[in-house]
Amino acid sequence: MSLLFSVLEVVAPVFILAAIGFLWVKLGFEYRVQFVPRLSMSLGVPCLIFTALMQTKIDAGFLQITMFASILAYALVTLVGFALVKLAGLDLRTYLGPLIFGNTGNVGLPLAFFAFGDEGFGYAVVIFAIMGMYSFTAGIWIVSGGGSFFKIVKEPLVSATFLGALFLWQGWQTPPFLTNTLELIGQMAIPLML
Q1: Which of these, 49, 123, 168, 174, is most buried using a 10 Å CB contact count?
Q2: pTM for this structure?
């Protein structure tokens, strides 16, 4: 029975937040489809990634292993997905993206946090940041059949990832008042995504 409660402690918050969003729409409350994802992906998620990378306590060696393992995993999933889509005779632009990019953020981040605490969350943010970078570079190219470098650089998630990685690498910290503000903004990302 304690195993069941342990699992519930991890997964229940994710399902409850998703259920709140579902009920919100079903009850007819206003949900601005363009505003909420834009707020989350343009402000909340970049702040979450930046502060998590800046403050991570992950050992540099483990961080590199996690990064390279994530990159390798996404490369393999891309190759397998590409082969499957081609073999099935399906349109690459339509089907390859959904095969490659999963819910590592809105589902993976809270699960990692509740299951493994701050350290697990740190690893999950690294994986999510890599997926986000890949999604906003190769993902855009896959869906649109091309892309602009300037569009990629203007994506807040990409900028936040580079900036967070730079702060982590250099050991820099933002002033506490700014860190607190960015953390508070970042905390809205996961509930908004769900």
Answers
A1: 49
A2: 0.86
